[in-house]
Automatic annotation (TrEMBL), chain A:
Residues 322-383 form the RING-Gid-type domain. SMART domains: CRA, CTLH. Belongs to the FYV10 family. Pfam families: CTLH (PF10607). A zinc finger (RING-Gid-type) spans 322-383. PROSITE patterns: CTLH, ZF_RING_GID. It is found in: Cytoplasm. Residues 160-217 form the CTLH domain. This is CTLH/CRA C-terminal to lish motif domain-containing protein. The keyword Endoplasmic reticulum does not apply. Its main location: cytoplasm. Residues 68-95 form a coiled coil.
Automatic annotation (TrEMBL), chain B:
It comes from the Eukaryota. SMART domains: CRA, CTLH. Residues 332-376 form the RING-Gid-type domain. It comes from Myxozyma melibiosi. This is CTLH/CRA C-terminal to lish motif domain-containing protein.
Length: 398, 390
């Protein structure tokens, strides 16, 4: 089958590799715009005012000097912020460059059996592993992986996933501050995407006040945060107002049980993660999971079982090396569909032993020779049974 | 990738935040100068402040242009990326593949992958982070394996030979001749080495090799006679090996790699594991399979159809056989379906093989109904067919 190598096919799987730093660059750029806009307005005003107050004789020379000092220090502040953004930008540019080179390396590979491809794939698997373990919050594992494979350092996005996990964990622990701060940072995206994340989190904060009997706090929180967005979430805002009339917990019949449920926090955590990933263009299952779900099926055959396969090194088809039958992956592959095949693939010159097992003729000869059997004897590599080679019967699978 | 690379180059040139900083520096310079001038010559104040005003206006324009440049190169780069990465790969994901309950299994598979790749540090961290229980002995075995491999790389065969000798019976049972291969390589190595590795003293290579052969080859006489006599004949050509008929067995450039490979393979086998990490193989196969699955997914969405069989992928994935085929596959030539335990391969008396269901169909469900083999003139009845195993 095809060993032809099409680099484009590999490149198309790697969208978040380049899009993530690009998106961070956009974010940085937006931040720079904000800073500039604010400080520019200030400087323009200050310059006009300095000139006018001097012209009108209102300002003394000392006043003018201190007006200039204010401008200078404002400008120095802007410079400091820009230098910081420049440093951030440099990181994203460096990462983008490393990633482009990583993908470009694919274009010099000619075959899937190339050693270079194996090396490339090893790097790929390592960075996929970092991404996957980070999604579970295994930061130490991720760091150790990067330490052991320094070449992937610029190819992984630790910070984003670490932050995401921290916020997710805080929500599961019943804290809203971290998530609300994140919402604040990404206000414009959330608005554009019509995300209800912030509303849901605020709503939960309100529920917590009610739950703990802090009615006054609940009312003021409701007024401050929920009323202003009542137009978008009208029904919900109206509905939860009635919550104050019920005391939580004691009343099994409360119509607000869903909101009082502890499951709500998990729901919020999941909503946050999906919103976060959508914003960054990160897939919900990890790229490792996506790759494995395809790869496990592509390798799986109806013969794949958890049982131990015979260990032989002579057949073309060495089932003892099958990854799907391996103790590591057999359980994981259980529920997956198997590969579609339209042609048989069996050892050449198939012969059958009296027990119904079929092997290539050469396979049996090689196995007998390696096992040091006397001439004319054959041994079933699977069952270990021995026969005279006269019992072999040629079969015609297709 | 060329368009991406081109736009990246543009971004690097005109998207640099350093320009902001130099714009700011320029205005800072102007402001500082105005301040100094006013300080030393207060009468110039009006003129200087007018200058400050115009510098600020110029600065606004300038930084505006810088902003425009950065913005435009950034959006061109973004567009190049959007164009390159149009497909949402998540659509090919099999949603039932990894339910949350499978997390530990996946973590375990990753930890095992790390151990067998020799990444012990990350593996230990993962075992801790994910609270996995993997017997220490597995890690120790692999540490041992990497230690033996390191020795092999340094052309020291002793640890490998000791290991193979300690597993002699198990290795023989699976048809391995690793131990003999190792001894043979040691013999050849001695024959080709004129300087003792440890002492650096010159050695009589012929004598050392011969002595080694006498001490070690005897147990292999029975099984590997042919190979042994070749070796000993080659011995006679020692002074002129390059031109001897034995040049291949002696000077194979990959001899050390080959032996390391089969050592790894058989070491792993005795642990009940394959030598290539299953996770690595599955990920490699996935990278090859995904583009095809994505294409099929797109077509099926366009035509509003779905997979007809949920047990089987909708298309054939062209994986290179040599790397990814581990089981013989039998596709029934009549029904074109792969045989399974439920629908196993059956051999008719003529030696042709079909799936059990096909057999039933050809005999109209009657186990004693005679029917003609679809591939030869022979006739038989289903009850004569026997179950075979590939």
């Amino acid at each position: 089958m095809s060993k032809d190598f099409n680099p484009e096919n590999h490149v198309l799987l790697e969208q978040s590799l380049l899009k993530l730093p690009q998106q961070q660059m956009r974010q940085t750029f937006k931040t720079s715009q904000k800073y500039i806009e604010r400080d520019l307005a200030f400087l323009n005003n200050a310059a006009s005012e300095a000139l006018e107050s001097c012209n009108s004789g209102k300002a003394s020379p000392d006043d003018s000097l201190s007006q200039l000092d204010v401008m200078i220090s404002r400008l120095q502040g802007l410079k400091r912020k820009m230098v910081n953004l420049q440093a951030e930008e440099d990181v994203y540019m460096r990462k983008s460059k490393a990633r482009i080179s990583h993908l470009q390396a694919l274009y010099s590979i000619s075959s899937i059996e190339d050693k270079d491809y194996e090396r490339w794939n090893q790097i790929r698997v390592n960075r996929l592993l970092v991404d996957d373990v980070l999604r579970n919050g295994y930061v130490d594992t991720a760091k150790a992986l990067v330490d052991a494979n320094p070449e992937i350092e610029d190819l992984v996005d630790m910070d984003i996933l670490v932050q995401c996990k921290a916020i997710e964990t805080s929500l599961r622990a019943g804290r809203t501050d971290e998530c609300l701060a994140w919402c604040q940072e990404n206000k414009s995206y959330l608005k554009k995407a019509r995300s209800s994340l912030e509303y849901e989190v605020r709503l939960q904060q309100y529920v917590e006040f009610v739950r703990t009997g802090k009615t006054v706090d609940a009312i003021s929180y409701y007024r401050k945060y929920l009323v202003p967005i009542a137009d978008v979430h009208f029904d919900s805002v109206i509905r939860i107002a009635g919550m104050l009339a019920f005391s939580p917990g004691s009343d099994q019949e409360s119509p607000y049980q869903d909101l009082f449920s502890a499951e709500r926090w998990n729901h919020l955590a999941e909503t946050f993660v999906s919103t976060h990933h959508l914003m960054h263009g990160i897939t919900m299952p990890s790229l490792l999971q996506i790759t494995l779900s395809a790869g496990l099926s592509a390798l799986k055959t109806p013969s794949c079982k958890a049982e131990n396969h015979p260990i032989t090194f002579v057949s073309n088809y060495n089932s003892s090396l099958c990854p799907i039958c391996s103790p590591e992956l057999s359980e994981l592959s259980k529920s997956l569909p198997y590969a579609h095949h339209v042609r048989s693939m069996v050892d050449p010159e198939p012969v059958m032993l009296p027990n119904g097992r079929i092997y290539g003729h050469q396979t049996l000869m090689d196995f007998a020779a390696n096992a040091g059997l006397p001439a004319g004897r054959v041994r079933d590599p699977t069952t270990g049974d021995e026969w005279d080679e006269k019992v072999l019967r040629r079969v015609y699978p297709s | 990738m060329d368009s991406v690379l081109k736009e990246y180059g543009r971004l690097q040139k005109s998207g640099d935040f350093g320009k902001y900083v130099s714009d700011i520096d320029q205005l800072l310079g102007a402001l500082q100068k105005a301040r100094n001038t006013i300080n030393s010559a207060p009468q110039s104040r009006r003129e200087q402040l007018a200058l400050v005003k115009s510098s600020t206006t110029a600065f606004a324009e300038k930084i505006g242009n810088t902003q425009k440049d950065i913005h435009s190169s950034l959006s061109k780069y973004s567009k190049a990326l959007d164009k390159k990465f149009k497909i949402d790969i998540e659509t090919s994901y099999n949603r039932s593949a990894f339910p949350p309950s499978s997390r530990t299994l996946l973590d375990r598979a990753i930890a095992m992958h790390l151990i067998r790749e020799g990444h012990f540090e990350p593996a230990d961290k993962l075992i801790k982070d994910a609270s996995l229980s993997i017997p220490d002995v597995i890690e120790e075995e692999f540490k041992n394996m990497y230690w033996i491999l390191a020795a092999l790389r340094g052309h020291d065969l002793k640890p490998a030979i000791d290991w193979a000798a300690s597993k002699r019976e198990k290795l023989a049972a699976m048809g391995s001749n690793l131990e003999f291969s190792l001894h043979r390589l040691q013999f050849i190595h001695y024959l080709l080495t004129t300087v003792d590795e440890e002492t650096g003293e010159p050695v009589n290579s012929t004598r050392r090799a011969l002595q080694y052969a006498r001490e070690n080859f005897a147990p292999f006489g029975e099984r590997h006679m042919a190979s042994l006599s070749k070796l000993m004949c080659a011995f006679l050509f020692n002074s002129n090996l390059e031109k001897s008929p034995y040049v291949n067995i002696f000077l194979s450039p990959s001899a050390w790699d080959d032996v390391a490979k089969s050592f790894t393979k058989e070491f792993c086998s005795l642990l009940g594991l394959s030598s290539d990490s299953p996770l690595y193989l599955a990920a490699a196969a996935g990278a090859i399979a995904l583009p095809t699955l994505l294409k099929v997914g797109t077509i099926m969405r366009e035509k509003h159809t779905e997979w007809s069989s949920e047990n089987e992928l909708p298309v054939e994935i062209p994986l290179p056989e040599s790397m990814f085929q581990f089981h013989a596959i039998f596709v029934c030539p009549v029904s074109k379906e792969q045989t399974t335990d439920e629908n196993p391969p059956m051999m008719m008396p003529c030696g042709h093989i079909v799936a059990k269901e096909s057999l039933g169909r050809m005999s109209k469900g009657n186990p004693n109904q005679r029917f003609k083999c679809p591939y030869c003139p022979n006739e038989s009845i289903p009850n004569q067919a026997i179950r075979v195993y590939f």
